[in-house]
Amino acid sequence: MIVPDYVEPTVGWRVWHAVDDGVSTSLLSVVHKTFWPRCAPLEATCRCFRLSVWPFRRTRHEAPASGCTCGIYAANVETVRLYLPDHFGTTRRVPVIGRVALWGEVHEHEHGWRATYAYPKCLFVPVANLSSLAAAAVIDDLRRYAVPVLALRGTNADTVLDELTTLAA
Amino acid sequence: MELGKPQRVYTVEPAESPVPARPPATPERERIEPEPKPVEPVPRP
């Protein structure tokens, strides 16, 4: 029997895009185009071995692994800020910022974590650039994740982050 | 996402599941189609 080091999940911040998956609006990872399931954990897999043109192919392994970049990522607020557009009107996709619970094997780094499993804890949607109808539809759909979903009124990354750190406190 | 240098590895097995129970089924969002415009009568020559 393996005794875990912690029984409380690690909590970090992430950015997603809210994307219509054909049925509803879902969370889509920004870097790897992974849709996050509703009411089920997202499990990490390593994609490095799939790159057949890569000359230094890695062997298949569980994610996250030391010496690899695999795993589900979350970071501190300062790092997440770097992945937000300066002005929300400049992007076609709706960014969603949120806190995420991480568990399983967790690799802690200077600015964040890589983990085996993840699920959102709460979601924040910048709505300044959306019509009231579109904002309500996105928020309603994201509530299917069964976590709190809040609207942010800020129009740029700094005002949005100020607002969400106040709301999340 | 740039996470910086690795610090340590640990395991987490939550005492309570971080995944909420599936909420009761609700109908998918209704798609609102625009109403068709009435066809204007073609004037007779």
Summarize the structure in short.
The complex is a heterodimer of chains A (169) and B (45). By secondary structure, chain A is an alpha+beta fold. Chain A has helices at 77-81, 132-142, 157-168, and strands at residues 10-20, 25-29, 42-43, 72-75, 94-109, 112-126, 149-152.
Please name the defining characteristics of this protein.
heterodimer; A: 7-stranded mixed β-sheet; 3 helices; 7 strands; B: mainly beta; elongated
Task: Give structural notes.
The complex is a heterodimer of chains A (169) and B (45). With 169 residues, chain A is α+β, with helices and mostly antiparallel strands. Chain A has a domain at 10-44 and 72-104 and 119-168: Severin (3-Layer(aba) Sandwich), CATH 3.40.20. Chain A has three helices and seven strands. Chain A has helices at residues 77-81, 132-142, 157-168; strands spanning 10-20, 25-29, 42-43, 72-75, 94-109, 112-126, 149-152. In chain A, strands 1, 2, 3, 4, 5, 6 and 7 form a seven-stranded mixed β-sheet that branches. The model of chain A has no long low-confidence stretch (mean pLDDT 88). Chain B is mostly beta strands and 45 residues long. Chain B is 0% helix and 16% strand. Chain B has no helices and one strand. Chain B has one strand at residues 6-12. The model of chain B has no long low-confidence stretch (mean pLDDT 77). The chains are: A alpha+beta (169), B mainly beta (45). The A-B interface holds A 2, 4-10, 23-24, 31, 38-41, 66, 73, 75, 79, 82-83, 101-115, 119, 121, 137, 140-141, 144-147 and B 1-15, 18-23, 28-29.
